[in-house]
Design brief:
The protein is an alpha/beta fold. The protein has helices at 3-26, 39-55, 67-76, 92-98, 136-141, 154-165, 179-191, 206-209, 234-239, 241-249, 254-266, 269-279, 281-297, and strands at residues 29-35, 58-64, 80-87, 103-119, 145-147, 173-175, 198-202, 212-214, 226-232.
Length: 299
């Protein structure tokens, strides 16, 4: 190879290297949002992913896992978040394990609630409180079952404590299942006007579809009103302060979440999130902040 040929090859190699470096520099940041398979988290995580990918140089992966894995994964893995830390009670045990290894970026919504739920047609003078479940006649009407959700859920941990504290184990058993299995059991019971108690929570689309009520909890074991926080691996705040700032501003009124969940149940989480983003531009502008608003205006 002559000197001229070598020079051409050298220039080609330098150009290829420059292109490779430029490609690396331009690569989008990979963000993981853990989701715990429950309605509000699934829907709002998709909303967050859609907005992030539209306004920031990121690629978002939604990683479905049990709630315990969501907490641990956020603590251990860089550029990861979880948008459904129910505090101060429901997820207290999970949060205690990771509190030194995550940042709390903000509160996504207030007024969340857990409890045992019955259809409104169940007479309140017969079954108005968890304490009433100790009566054998009431347990018989429920076929000896309280319909639960997944075993690792914070609500199931509290529900097992309630079974002990209210001395219910002689006549009732807490059935473990998925969230969709719980709502399917609720729908079947309502179709036949049968008595049922389910481990429920709000926000959830079932409150929009059915006429339901919470049972009183005299011992206060299932918790009162809670706030749902966004937690993140410290690498988010350290390496991507603009993303951390976005989540610190992301907050949604409970009424808007109920509407979103009703839409998701009638269609899909993805479709409902897309419509939410299209219809709630003013709210989303507050999440983005001044720089996000100006960038959106320039589009």
């Amino acid at each position: 190879m002559g000197r001229q040929g070598f020079k051409v090859l050298q220039q080609a190699l330098i150009g290829a290297l420059a292109l490779g470096l430029a490609g690396t520099a331009a690569a989008a940041t990979e963000i993981t949002i853990y989701t715990d398979n429950y309605a509000a988290d699934e829907a709002l995580s998709r909303v967050a992913a859609d907005v992030l990918e539209a306004h920031y140089d990121v690629d978002v992966t939604l990683q479905s896992a049990s709630v315990g894995v969501c907490f641990l994964g956020t603590a251990r893995n860089e550029n990861s978040l979880f948008l459904a830390a129910w505090l101060p009670k429901t997820h207290a045990d999970y949060m205690a394990r990771v509190k030194d290894d995550v940042d709390v970026l903000g509160t996504l919504y207030n007024g969340a609630r857990l409890g045992w739920v019955v259809p409104a047609y169940v007479p309140e003078d017969q079954l108005g409180s968890i304490a009433d479940l100790k009566k054998p006649a009431i347990a018989d009407k429920l076929d000896g079952r309280i319909q639960g959700i997944s075993a690792g859920a914070g609500e199931m941990q509290l529900s097992r404590q309630a079974m002990d504290a209210y001395d219910l184990k002689d006549n009732l058993r807490l059935v473990t299942a998925s969230g969709p299995a719980m709502t399917a059991a609720l729908a079947r019971a309502i179709d036949h006007q049968e008595w049922i108690v389910v481990t429920g929570w709000s926000p959830h689309w079932m409150w929009e579809r059915y006429d339901l009520r919470y049972l009183d909890d005299p011992k206060g074991l299932l918790g009162g009103r809670e706030h749902v926080d966004i937690i993140a691996n410290p690498s988010i705040k350290a390496g991507h302060p603009e993303i951390a700032a976005f989540f610190s501003r992301m907050t949604v009124p409970l009424s808007k979440i109920n509407d979103l969940l009703a839409d998701a149940n009638a269609s899909s989480y993805d479709a409902a999130a897309e419509r939410f983003v299209a219809n709630e531009r003013e709210m989303i502008a507050t999440w983005l902040g001044p720089s996000g608003e100006s960038r959106d205006d320039d589009r």
